[in-house]
Amino acid sequence: MSENEENVVFENYLKKIRTDCTLEKKKHFNAADRKERTFRRINLAVIGLSVLSATAIIAEINFNSEVIPKIIEGCFSAITIALAFYLMMRNDQMHTEKHKLIANEFIDLANKCDYELARIKTCSDPDAKIKEFQASYKGLIDKAILLNTTKSDYEKARKGIESGEESYTKKDLAIGEIVDE
User: Fold this and answer.
1) Which of 31, 33, 146, 162 keeps 20 to 30 A from 5, CA to CA?
2) What does the alpha-carbon distance between residue 171 and residue 180 come to, in Å, rounded to a whole number?
3) Full DSSP string of the chain
4) Distance of alpha carbon 53 from alpha carbon 76, whole angstroms
């Protein structure tokens, strides 16, 4: 393979990695946003139920002989405790931060691809660079696999890229296409 052909393969591969990194970055930021929304909603439910539980306690104090306020208080308290326990066990804030960290690592790798694309003509060993980028990308994917994302996170990321949130050409957006070496 001539040096020019090697550079074309290297350039295509870098563009593919950069696009995949952008997609993964967006996917993980979408997952972080989704988890933050869920966490906020459950917290609001806990606050609301705590207020209702306190109201039931006040009603129990005022109507000491009534059984219904005691049942209501017990139900609200049990639901509040269950939601608080659920929040504690899920630890969404930690997962959100992990999604953001991995997304930032994908940004870093995409930026390295951009850097290499800018100086592609001076690369003396494209095969070694391709292997280096493959290893970096695989390492990030291995870390990211531990974090749950949904198909909707992926679709939202892909639609965002296709709608112009990121600037890539149609050729760059051939996501899923494997660049032949």
Assistant:
1) 162
2) 14
3) --HHHHHHHHHHHHHHHHHHHHHHHHHHHHHHHHHHHHHHHHHHHHHHHHHHHHHHHHHHHHTTT-SHHHHHHHHHHHHHHHHHHHHHHH-HHHHHHHHHHHHHHHHHHHHHHHHHHHTGGG-S-HHHHHHHHHHHHHHHHHHHTTS---HHHHHHHHHHHHTTSS---TTTT-TTPPPP-
4) 5
Whole-number Cα distances in Å, 161 to 5, 140, 166: 29, 20, 5
- State the pTM of this model: 0.65
Tokens of 101: 């960290």
Angle between helices 3-62 and 126-144 (to 10 degrees): 10
Tokens encoding 45: 């439910």
- Residue 167: what pLDDT? 61
Low-confidence ranges of the chain (pLDDT < 50): 173, 175-181
Structure tokens given for 135: 């290893």
